Amino acid sequence: MGTGSITQGAAKTLEKNIFQCENGRSRVAGIGEITDAQGKVWTVPADNNFASGPKAVDLYEECSGITPRSIAEVDQNSVPVVIVDPDGEEVTGYIFADNYFELYINGTLVGVDSVPFTPFNSSIVKFKVSKPYTIAVKVIDWEENLGLGSESNRGKAYHPGDGGFIASFSDGTVTSKDWQAQTFYTSPIYDLSCLKEANGQRLSDECTTQGTDNGQDAYGVHWQTPSNWMTKEFDSSSWPQATLYTEDEIGVNNKNAYMNFIEKFSGAGASFIWSTNVVLDNEVLLRYQVK
Ligand SMILES: [Ca+2]
Ligand SMILES: [Ca+2]
Ligand SMILES: [Ca+2]
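ok -> structure tokens follow
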């Protein structure tokens, strides 16, 4: 019935909360593990480098009191430059993710999101690289109910949160339908017969996205991420194209981390992207080659 591995019910919590908000409120961002019927253990919401990776510089991050009203108030010169190619061009990137991203350039981890779940933040990165180069991004729609793909929200104990990723780069690169997006974790699923796979796509568009107060027995579907998925050499030709989402669909008009820098996002020609299901797909890998 497909290539994914199925788990059911809540994961075991490994870390209760990996992020403390010093100055305001945040959702509890935990990490858990859950075992499928074959005995394979999966990390939820996904394996990540939050603890050890280089934190991207914040454009906007309420917990640290970084709340500029516009890009003009940001000291862009103080952002460290990650050297991928010493003779390369210096590129600045502006990033907003719902909820978490890890950015690789030619396989080098350039920056990880400083806030795994909420509040919503945005980031700025700089790197030096020669064209052509490959951008690879892991994005995670974090979850409160580990293994169940849901959070307490909108009056439901098990509401399936949504994702979304947008970025622009100073060399003119923007997120678009020409990026690739593959799904590696989908949840909550209540009826496995709604899942389909076709042409490399891991589809859940026939599955319900309604919240419930009884989501404790939800299924999760997991696919192993290739170990070299972020490298320049990795062949992602079988991956689907990214799906575009509007600002209204992602719901950013009340988020200062996005709106204060909108000229660097939709204003720069970038679009929100994700896999085919921005609600149920919670771990997605993105790739794009800059020519
Ligand atoms: Ca974040
Ligand atoms: Ca979700
Ligand atoms: Ca979310």
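DSSP finds two helices and 21 strands in the chain.
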